[in-house]
Design brief:
By secondary structure, this protein is α+β, with helices and mostly antiparallel strands. The protein is built from four helices and six strands; from the N terminus they run αββββαββαα. It has a four-stranded antiparallel β-sheet with strand order 3-4-6-5, with helices on one face. The protein has a two-stranded antiparallel sheet with strand order 1-2. Helix 1 runs antiparallel to helix 3 and helix 3 packs antiparallel against helix 4. The longest helix has 38 residues. It is elongated. The relative contact order is 0.17.
Length: 185
């Protein structure tokens, strides 16, 4: 019974950490990567479609992303979607493909992105603490219904706390690595 609760708690906390990693991948560091445009949706014949579904998105060098649409008629729609997404650059449309030139980041921009990363990490920690609360509530419910003893309940809650501490420290180390990556010039 308790091991199921531990496993479920760990599983949910792992999902929170995976979500944090996905969020971090959309943040810009010193070198551009295609994840910056992952959340951009293009109007593809009336349907909002992910940018990478209407063309190839590649990094051509440390500061440039090139987008080649599979249909030339999509160039203007892609350009419009990028402008509306407000990712900090204007698309350059040359009639065949779109290039995004990212200027080197200033120290203020880096600090701002670190703030965003810190907020994302804090959200992940809050999610993990909420999962801890759910796990503890399940254990207390088992104790209340006399399925486990008070001692087992205390041990169970201590185990949930250990799992929580381990996952919170993982969030901290992921954030520290991302912060170093963002601040590296």
């Amino acid at each position: 019974m308790l091991s199921e609760i531990y496993n479920h708690t760990q599983e949910q906390m792992t999902k929170s950490i995976e979500a944090l990693k996905r969020d971090f991948s959309t943040l810009r560091t010193g070198k551009v990567n295609t994840n910056i445009v992952d959340n951009i949706k293009v109007d593809y014949y009336g349907t909002p479609t992910a940018l990478n579904q209407v063309g190839s998105v590649i990094v051509t060098d440390a500061t440039t992303i090139s987008i080649t649409p599979w249909e030339k008629s999509m160039l203007n729609a892609i350009e419009k979607a990028i402008q509306e997404a407000n990712i900090g650059v204007n698309p350059n449309n040359d009639g065949d493909f779109i290039k995004l030139f990212f200027p080197p980041m200033t120290s203020e921009q880096r600090q701002e992105i670190v703030k965003q990363a810190k907020q994302m990490a804090e959200k992940a920690k809050i999610a993990i603490r909420n999962i801890r609360k759910d796990g503890n509530d399940k254990i207390k419910k088992l104790e209340k219904s006399k399925d486990i003893s008070e001692d087992e309940s205390k041990k169970g809650q201590a185990e949930i706390q250990k799992i929580t501490d381990k996952n919170i420290s993982e969030v901290d180390s992921i954030f520290s690595a991302k912060e170093a990556d963002i601040l590296k010039v």
